[in-house]
Amino acid sequence: MKGSLLVAGASSDAGKSMLTAGICRWLHRRGVDVVPFKAQNMSNNSAVTHDGAEIGRAQQLQAHACGARASADMNPVLLKPGGDRHTHVVLHGKPLGEVSALDYRELKTTLRQAVLDSYDRLRAAHDVVICEGAGSPAEINLRETDVANMWLADQRDLATLVVGDIDRGGVFAALFGTLALLDERDQSLVAAFVVNKFRGDERLVAPGLRMLHDLTGRQVLGALPWLPGLVIDGEDSLSLVRTLSGGPPVGEEPLHVAAVRLPRTSNATDLDALGCEPGVVVQWTTSPAEVAAADLAVLPGSRATVSDLEWLRATGLADAVTERARRGRPVLGVCGGYQMLAETITDDVESRTGTVPGLALLPTRVRFDAAKTLGRPTGHAGGITVDTAYAIHHGVAEPTGACEEFLGGWRRGSVWGTPWHGCLDTDAFRRAFLREVADAAGRRFTPAPGTDVAALRDRQLDLLADAVADHLDTGALDRLITAGPPAGLPTVRTLLTREATA
């Protein structure tokens, strides 16, 4: 089997990333040499490959679904928003610089060549490449500079599958409208639809699927069911509205975690491992009262540390975090959140604000280096080896007073800070950390002895693959991958003209 396919979405968070992962896993389980590809990703949830390249977190998960080692070619262009008008561009895994929306248009030629080079290398080295689009292919105001959706499909003649989220309502209008807004060449590449997140008896949605086929002349491969409990590696910021909980506690009491939802939160997936633990409830929040009341408060990573710190102060959240630390209540800062815990932050790189005061909860000072630190560090905490971490940061902290080393960072009392993402994925460390948190919070909480985050991730990938196998027309899916877009697909204008003259 050889070929390729583009999975596009009728909207952001329609399920492109999860469907791509599910198709990848389904193919991998059949022995197909398959890898993922996302030409351009806009996300502050990133990961670091084993050779030190920064890519979107979802592509790392999809590579894992394929049984492959993630590489920069799987996500050649990564955009990390740092504000409303400027974005940090990562090209082939390395920082390119900050650009405005208008500057970005000038990069089009460079980025498009990088995208095609990466895609072609993957196609030459593997039998199947499953591509994921970005946002919606019907963002017609951006078609001229598109690199991830219909431009890619046009350049490499890819059959395009469009997925829509029925849970939001209006899915049939979204799928039909996506097709209708495209020009004739792009419409000729859209070969099939998938409905995602359907709840209930599939017989209820079947008439709509048939009508969509009749209206568009495109195959409707099926309706994927709502899959509760998919908590691993959510890519879109919309997923931060969720509460994560691994179920009832093993011990006498649950443990409540308040994760501060910063305006520019990055690598929110750091908290997923906590949400897998029975008895641990992770709530993303902007409420000072919830932060004050929680057993553990977490300041996550940030794409704009100084700006988010200002917001933290303006909202009263800084006071809530500071007060709980003074009372010996646990606080954890990760990467940008760790930097906020310092006495001072000197940033002439991201915000270019010079030196500003931090929360002074750790006796450290932070200085931003122009060079970005990217790596897969290994460390020890309490005699436990932590080997799941990755580092993506400009800020470097040094101690100004007495504190303990903690996974590349520092700890004082009930305040922990680390520049490393992914530490909590190490099961033994996570359990030991939660015991300390429970003791400091005065909770009678017992960590579950058998929670295995890596195994849970694999089970969820298999659940996605099972959904593909059980609910989609997999024969048609195979044909789209191997044969490309079917010839003679009608345009919406042609279909409407036929309807009007019938």
UniProtKB/TrEMBL annotation:
Family to which this protein belongs: Belongs to the CobB/CobQ family. CobQ subfamily.
Function comment: Catalyzes amidations at positions B, D, E, and G on adenosylcobyrinic A,C-diamide. NH(2) groups are provided by glutamine, and one molecule of ATP is hydrogenolyzed for each amidation.
InterPro entries: Class_I_gatase-like, CobQ/CobB/MinD/ParA_Nub-bd_dom, CobQ_GATase1, CobQ_N, CobQ_synth, GATase_3, P-loop_NTPase
GO molecular function, one term: ABC-type vitamin B12 transporter activity
Active site: C335 (nucleophile), H421
Residues of the CobQ/CobB/MinD/ParA nucleotide binding domain: 6-230
Any matching Pfam family: CbiA
Keywords: Cobalamin biosynthesis, Glutamine amidotransferase
Keyword GTP-binding appears in the UniProt entry: no
Protein name: Cobyric acid synthase
Segments forming domain CobB/CobQ-like glutamine amidotransferase: 257-428
Residues spanning the membrane: none
Organism, as annotated: Streptantibioticus silvisoli
Pathway(s) this gene product operates in, as recorded in its UniProt entry: Cofactor biosynthesis; adenosylcobalamin biosynthesis
GO biological process: cobalamin biosynthetic process
Species lineage: Bacteria, Bacillati, Actinomycetota, Actinomycetes, Kitasatosporales
Domain of life: Bacteria
